[in-house]
Amino acid sequence: MFKNSPFEDYPIEFKEINSTDFPEFKVDAKKIIKPDEKGFITTELLSSIELDSKNTIVINAAVGQGKTYSIIEIVKQYFKSNEDYLVFIVSPFVSLIEQYHQKLINQDIQEKDIFRYELLGTEKCPNYLEKSIHIVTANCLLGNPGDDALINSKAKREYINTLSSFCQKTNKKVIFIYDEIHDAIHNFKEKYIFNLWKWKNSIHKNYVISATFNEASKIVIEYLAELTDDKIQIIESLRIRNKENQSDLNLHYCNSQFFNNETPELVNLIQDLIKRDKEIDILCFSKTLSLSIIENKTEGAGKLLYQKYDKINNCTSDFIKDSKKGKTSPQNRYNPNLCNVGTNFKSGVSIEKDNHAFVIIFPPNGAKMPFQNFYGIFSNGINSIIQALARQRKKGEIHLLLPLPDKINYISLPFSNDKKKFTFFKNVYENICNQKDTKELIEYNSLAKQRDLLYEFYSNELKGNVINEIQLVQNTNRVNKVRLEFPEFKLFVLEDGEIYLANKFQFFGGDLSAYITYSAITNQFINCTLNTIISKKVLVLDENNMESQLINFYNTYYYEETHQSYFIYLNDPLYFKVLKDTIFKETQIFFKVGDKFKTIKKNGKDKTSKQFEAVLLNLVRKYKRKNYTDINETNQLLSNYLSESISLSLNSDSKEYSQYNKAYIESFKYLNVLRERMIKSINSLQVKGENINYLSQDPSEDFIPLNEEENFKNLINFFSTEENPIMIGMLNLSELFKGKTLTSQKKEIYKLILKLFFETELYRLPTGKRERVKKITKIKELPNPDKVFNWLIKPDYDFPEGFFTTEMIEEGTETIKSILNKN
């Protein structure tokens, strides 16, 4: 947890199940159980259950508290009982059947006593009437055929019909254990519930188990409890953190519109994990992104993974059809012995690898749409986040790649009256969140409020929109007409409630990053605690205070000893270049105009971006050369650049420098030749006792004689192909000369020198044709070369693009010294 965080023991909010949720049922007083010292609930849970009583038991327990182990223990007790029980373990996924099967075998329950749903319709299908324990899927039990059929297979129907009749005839007591019920809710449609009534005369008990109950699951509980004489027992575990088992949670924010195999934040993360020899699994929000990583062996994150692993296991839920049996079986399941990348292990899988890093890639900004979010496996909202994080069962690392969250209404927070918590949260969140304006701030909403929100929408908008028509239909004689009834509130909650909450409310799933960030800061995840936040810093500037704001930002983040020990060894242009690259890499920079925010881009050609880089250059002058002057206009900056470059060139020997610097020196020496020529050609005129010095607005024909044209072309070529970092985007002299004739280029260079090396006024001569000229009020002197920003790049410092990294900054002085010595 973050140092000095006031949320270390802050209560974990979860969806409670209470007796008041079921006013039409017989509900015992809720039993609260506490995990043991290792964080498990099995012992106290089993002591709270009466195996012989007929009812529906709701077990609301946190992730990682041993629910699966408890299920196996419950099955064992029924299996060893003197009573004649038949037990169903009902899973939401086919992929979990093998897991339950293996755990039963490990508990000395023999193969002959277990039936696995996967064997239905195959030649290996045994006589299931002889089996005491059945592992099936919820869709099999309820007869849900899926999206590709109208009715489930004949083999499944015969299995359910034969077995239910057999149990009724032989007076077997049937136990149903619904694990991970949150992932099976879609099977409990009204038309499928009739299949459960096949067991009405033989059902003895339902166990409904989840760590992430929701409003829809309460409707499922009602359907099930009706089969157990309306009796419900609620057992709820305390959410207690076991710090010894908590993984380190690391948040990596990336504001890219889309994520792909080459997203820099993902590549950097995978590179770091491989460098530290971590075992890696990657859960992706989309199949497309998963495959882009799996199938790319030559670039990006995929390339890095294939350098570590011979094989990457594709976990993207393909189905392979057996044409002979007409049966489909899921492939690409999670493999604990491989590096897994995919979408289908968000729930039901336990990752128990040593030295493990679990990477989860959430939907980027581009997946957020006005009416429906394209969030892939996270489309159903916040419960899917809790389930995904819970896959990490042993202490390790969890890394989340996610976009910046939008702004939140701090007053809506449940601890807004607690100054210490409120200030801590706001300080952290404010440095992470997206600074762009949004139509509405994100509002915190408690989980307990969800039913009220759903009912308000249902009654006021959904049903309210057609309430008169509903009454009209009810008052109309429709004998023998097709049924026309508006769906009741509970059916709306069951079928559409979670989707509505996830899409309508930012905090419940519209902005997944906001929920994750809130939960991480306030310590809401039971199996992990916040370790690091890797995010671009946010810098907001305004026109009147840009310079002071940038100075404060620089002093806060970069004028530390570690940065100075790094930058001090760079010559001036590399100092500026590396600092600029570092700031843009680590910072999201906005320019505020009124209530609008404009992004400042690196090397941007717009006025604001150029102005920012000019102010940044002034900082470099201030801290590196100690000759800080207030320059924030492109012309002033260009004038200084050219003056300093001439001064340096006149005092440098091109033989000591690289080929690039030779061109630099010779070009600026020649520029000074033209400057001196213009100074010598200044005309003077006495007007009413005042000495008027002036130059023509256009060059004379012999301004650049024929024998100097090669020198002039070299100068223009240098300006047109300049690669010095200060010239890119911000000044861009090449635009002056591009596509122009030699005569026009001569005029441009003349005007440039006149504008930047002289202070002038427009003046009309009092004689002759009264020619318009430039009155010279001042000739700018060249600066002392020892006191200027040194634009020359010596060979030892001429490193390739991206040579210096943030990692080097952190390693400090000794690393930089050794690099410079080697070069």
From TrEMBL:
SUPFAM superfamilies: P-loop containing nucleoside triphosphate hydrolases (SSF52540). Gene3D superfamilies: P-loop containing nucleotide triphosphate hydrolases. Residues 43-201 form the Helicase/UvrB N-terminal domain. Coiled coil: none annotated. InterPro entries: Helicase/UvrB_N, P-loop_NTPase. It holds the Pfam family ResIII. This is Helicase/UvrB N-terminal domain-containing protein.
